[in-house]
Amino acid sequence: MTTLSLISIVKLLERANDAGIIVSFSNDELALSVRKGMHINQQILEELRQHKPSLIQYFQQHKVKENSITDAPHKMDRDKQRRLPLSFAQERLWFIDKLQGSIQYHMPWVFNLEGRLDRLAMESAFRMVIVRHEVLRTVILEDDGVGYQDIKPADEWHMTYVTEDAIHQSGHSVSSYITHITSLPYDLSADWMLKVTLIERETNLYTLCILLHHIAFDGWSVSILVRELTALYLSYAKGVKPVLPPLALQYADYAIWQRQYLSGNRLEKKIAYWLKQLKDVQPLAFPTDYPRPKEQIMSGREASLVCNDILKNALVTLSQEEGATLYMTLLSAFNALLYRYVSQNDICIGSPVAGRQQQQLESLIGFFVNTLAIRSHITGEMPFSALLQQVRQTTLEAYEHQDVPFEKIVESLGIERDMSRSAVFQVMFALQNTPSVTEPDLGEIRLTGENNDTATSRFDISLTITLLDSGMQIRIVYNDRLYSELRMEKLLGHYRNLLESIVADKHTTIGELGMLGSDELQQLLHDFRSPAPVIPAEEKTLPALFRAAAARTPAATALLLKILR
Asked: Which of 259 and 161 is assigned the larger pLDDT?
């Protein structure tokens, strides 16, 4: 049995985490568990068993070095706290809200319900979720410029009920009414973080609008809310007392723990890595279609395409051959795409991580997600396989330091604030690996999701890949004040073409990877090649040809050298 290196152990644990397998260590024993809604990956499970001695040794050393088991989040003694502090992530969103508002952090969902709905059971189910998860009834108050959490009593929460006739009488359609209530700014010092509106359209036909603020909720929380809401509604509708497992701690406990754990020398050592990694980082010079506003406007649109299973499986195989994860390969390809667009050698991309490294946080609703800044150095002459190995190494190091909140990194970097763009990076990349979410099973109620056309873009460009049973979806959310729909649809196609070129030959250099589609190649090779003009003999000298061209198109650009014309 071979002994794994530190990097190999971290990589194996990262792959296990991506597959939903939680590896924990207590009393010198290794324990494995699988997140709800995730299928067991037998191959990774077998690797974990084979390398059990190396993993135990790693956790023993890690425990001595970081005291990670002792310092895991736990229920805190709140009596010792004058105020309940905000988590670092909450604090940054609170600052953003005070500075420019936070509509871009609204999280709305709209469903149509058909059947005999028990309104009282529905309201009771939502209220019990709020009872269980304090963060959904937490407001943010201020004391001498410092924000703190204040928890409201759950019995004051109510679901809003309105009929379609009443909406029409107010001058709204149902659609415009939903747009109105979901775009009203939150008052973080007073509003419930979870707002629910039930619209009765006609007998046994309803529309349910659920609105949350990101400061109390993240993508991981969705599956928790759906699971608990389903169980609670069915219990209340049947007149049965609901039974859900108790929560070991609340989000406020986590915030107190985080403030204590990430402080002093421990925080300084972890931030030192990021200060070195992100020194002199520059904005991405991605060409815009429209002038960049002086202040960032979060208006957004989205586009998507689906790649087939053949491409997905080929990318998985390539990743395994290179000792990397699929996430690393897809991120490397996105780096290559951006390089081909801007010819910028130094590229920094943001990428979210769940921020729930400890098992006791997995059943808790809240804002845990953190963001990693992954920086790459690229040239057109390097093979894609070399870029992948660089991204792999950088990503593994970032994972080792992922518990440092991005907010503290930005603060420590001391970057001068530019109101026109986000700090450190302007482009995001994500591979969805949160627990799978199924639509709530409300018994006899037929439930269908409704498309929400409103989109906001917190960054210039955000690319998200979701693995499907037969392929993968590539979705882009972009700032439509900067980019046109045509450019972004082309970017999606170029990314897919680049992936196909990569699986064809991973050793191809970045500059030579195929990116253009067949229609674009047709234009370049044929459509743009017009027959050579007939030129009189006396005009065949270069100066004469130049004068003739200038006379025909006097406003055209004569010479383009980078930004000089």
From this structure: 161
Give residue-wise pLDDT tens across range 16-57. Answer: 776 777 777 766 677 787 765 566 777 888 888 888 888 887
- State the pairing for strand pair 84-85/446-449: unpaired
346 with 281: CB under 8 angstroms? yes
Helices of type H across 349-481: 384-400, 406-413
d(CA 62, CA 69): 9
Ordered alpha helix ranges (H), 438-538? 485-504, 518-522
Question: What's the pLDDT tens digit per position in 207-221?
Answer: 999 999 999 999 889
In angstroms, the CA 482 to CA 106 distance is: 22
Q: Are 73 and 249 in contact (CB under 8 A)?
A: yes
CATH code: domain 274-287+302-357+368-434+458-522 is 3.30.559.30
d(C-alpha 496, C-alpha 309), whole Å: 13
Rg of the chain over all Cα atoms, to the nearest angstrom: 27
Question: Can you give the pTM of this predicted structure?
Answer: 0.76
323-381 per-position pLDDT tens digit? 999 999 999 999 999 999 999 999 999 999 888 878 788 899 999 999 999 999 999 99
3-state secondary structure 57-97: HHHHHHHHHHCCCCCCCCCCCHHHCCCEECCHHHHHHHHHH
Question: Mean pLDDT across the stretch 69-95?
Answer: 82
The CATH architecture of the domain made up of 78-251 is: 2-Layer Sandwich (3.30)
Rounded CA-CA distance 24/20 in Å is: 13
Type of residue numbered 503: V
Judge whether 78-251 and 274-287+302-357+368-434+458-522 match in fold. Answer: yes
Average pLDDT over residues 175-197: 95
User: Does residue 430 sit in helix, strand or coil?
Assistant: strand
